[in-house]
Design brief:
Order of helices and strands: HEHHEEHHEHHEEHHH
Strand order of the largest sheet: 2-3-5-6
Strand content: 5-15%
Number of strands: 6
Radius of gyration: 38 Å
Largest sheet: 4 strands, antiparallel
CATH class: Mainly Alpha
Length: 496
């Protein structure tokens, strides 16, 4: 260590000047992208209310202007069992656990970088050495002097960050933590949506299986009667084969339906973090749900603040902006300051005694004169910023398309349900008339079985349309951004 009688005045002046200039931060400052200027989502106007149909799942739905989607939107379907299942999934889903851990990692990475960037590093040192000096080298003869040297001290180092490169890097890490926070929010929205739509699918499949089994039973009865008629000469072998074909085709449609139902059960188990073979989950029926009478419609300018995918893309744009600032700052001088204070003595007893104190103060400025790679790194960072801006615009457009699809599907499926409900009502009325005729002897049993099959077929179409309206409502809630987000601003994401 160098002994100095007093700190150089010129060095103090240089240090003071550098500190005064230390607030400079090169590179562009991040600005929130402008919200979409479009007023609506679809090319044409939307009806004020959807079409209605008889039944609890056929009511009209109204789109109401809202500033945000409801927090627990799945409760709008009126099923306590569904509410409980969604909460279990949000708590125990493994993918959400992984997303939370990734967020904590990003937050702690920011905290680690902030600690070494915003504050100087301070290290305590304690050392001892045994040294030998040859007197011949100093002109005092060939004798060798051996001695011990002890030292203790504290060293302080600090990168002045004159042009803000370290602060830009820290800003990029904060944006990365925000990105992970919105990724977690998107994962929560996805898990909740998957639980809800899978529950709807489970209910639909169970009802379809029951209706298909009823059709198969009616076809089996009709087939038995036709075989009896063949024996008495009232029907032909062709009639039997035709009916048997229909019956076998109906039976063949049951295993795929059961397979889909079992897959829905397995998916629900995994979503709540349980093994499919050991899960104890509720079985849902379409009658367990109600159709939300009013759905939120957030304007496009507010949508970008609601959807986690858009917010995540914004965070990546912020990170790319800060990383470009880091590349620009590398073209400017770097200043490193260091200071040390300690003691040095030949014996441990004198280590902290009078006259043993030593100190040092140093500053170093490095200015790149020729480094062809620095300009290339700046150009690469600028290209990355441009790509992040394009990706943000693409994300916004996809969000608008997602909402537009959900709105159109909501309207079209409401009309489908109205038609299916009318078809089901007509098939039921036809079945009632045939039943009356059968009781009066004016219709055969085969006509009754045929009417029953037709009614069950219409009922299957109605069940699919009812489930579609439920799924459409859930899709619109998700498209609006959902309310299950663990939303965190840049400060909140990096605070822990």
């Amino acid at each position: 260590m160098l002994r100095c009688p007093a700190p150089p005045r010129a060095g103090l002046c240089l240090l003071a000047a550098a500190l005064l200039a230390g607030c400079t931060t090169v590179g562009p400052d991040f600005k929130q992208p402008a919200p979409p200027t479009v007023a609506g989502y679809t090319a044409g106007s939307l009806p004020a209310r959807t079409a209605s149909a008889p039944g609890t799942l056929g009511g009209q739905q109204r789109l109401g202007q809202a500033t945000s989607a409801p927090t627990a939107w799945w409760t709008a379907f009126g099923s306590p069992a569904l509410d409980s299942l969604v909460q279990r999934a949000l708590q125990d889903n493994p993918s959400l656990d992984a997303a939370r851990a990734t967020l904590r990692q990003a937050q702690q990475t920011y905290a680690a970088q902030a600690g070494s960037t915003l504050y100087p590093t301070v290290n305590a040192k304690l050392g001892a050495s045994r040294n030998g000096v040859n007197g011949a080298a100093q002109g005092t003869g060939n004798s060798q002097r051996i001695y011990n040297l002890y030292n203790a001290g504290i060293a302080v180092n600090y990168n002045l960050d004159l042009f803000g490169g370290n602060r830009r890097a820290l800003e990029a890490l904060a944006a990365q933590a925000d990105y992970q926070a919105y990724q977690l929010a998107g994962a929560r929205l996805s898990v909740a949506g998957n639980v809800v739509t899978t529950a709807f699918a489970q209910a639909q499949l169970a009802a379809q299986i029951a209706a298909t089994q009823a059709i198969a039973k009616a076809q089996a009865d009709e087939l038995d009667i036709t075989r009896q008629r063949v024996r008495i000469g009232a029907a032909s072998r062709v009639d039997v084969l035709s009916l048997q074909t229909q019956y076998e085709q109906t039976l063949a449609s049951l295993p795929p339906l059961r397979n889909k139902l079992q897959q829905a059960d397995h998916l629900l188990a995994v979503l709540v973090g349980q093994a499919p073979g050991h899960a104890r989950l509720p079985r849902f029926a379409l009658a367990d749900f109600r159709l939300p009478p009013q759905l939120p419609l957030v304007v496009p300018s507010a949508l970008v603040r609601q959807r986690p995918d858009v917010q995540a893309s914004t965070a990546l744009l912020h990170a790319a902006t800060a990383q470009y600032g880091v590349a620009v700052s590398n073209l400017y001088p770097q200043i490193n300051l260091s200071a040390s204070l300690g003691t040095q003595a030949l014996t441990t007893g004198a280590l902290f005694g009078p006259g043993s104190a030593i100190w040092a103060l140093a500053g170093q400025l490095a200015q790149p004169l020729f480094d062809a790679g620095l300009r290339g790194a700046e150009n690469a960072a600028e290209a990355n910023l441009q790509a992040a801006g394009a990706n943000y615009r693409e994300t916004v457009l996809q969000a608008l398309r997602n909402v537009a699809d959900a709105l159109r599907q909501l309207d079209n499926d409401a009309q489908t349900l109205r038609a299916q409900a009318a078809a089901d009502q007509a098939a039921q009325q036809s079945l009632q008339l045939v039943e009356q005729q059968y009781r009066l002897g004016a219709a055969s049993y085969l006509q009754l079985l045929s009417a029953q099959q037709q009614a069950q077929g219409a009922r299957i179409g109605l069940l699919a349309a009812q489930a579609a309206r439920l799924a459409d409502s859930a899709a619109l809630y998700q498209a609006m951004g959902g309310g299950v987000l663990e939303r965190q601003s840049a400060g909140a994401a990096t605070a822990s």
